[in-house]
Amino acid sequence: MQEDNFTLRPTDDFIELIKLLKLKQIAQSGGHAKLLVEDGLVKVNGHQEFRKRNKLRPGDVVELDGIKITIER
What we know:
two-stranded antiparallel sheet, five-stranded mixed beta sheet, single chain, Structural Genomics Hypothetical 15.5 Kd Protein In mrcA-pckA Intergenic Region, Chain A, alpha+beta, 22% helix
């Protein structure tokens, strides 16, 4: 499994799930990111996540397609 980190900007408390998928270039577009989540292909903290706008905070772990992303401050 490929491991990666995402560091929040100092002014941000969270990042929305679909925005993370776009920024990390896992999804090619916002629509693609939404489909990945709607199809149940994304896990957050080990649980299947269907909320596209789920707020990810430091310590959260997102998994998809052999990629594991940890949210950091």
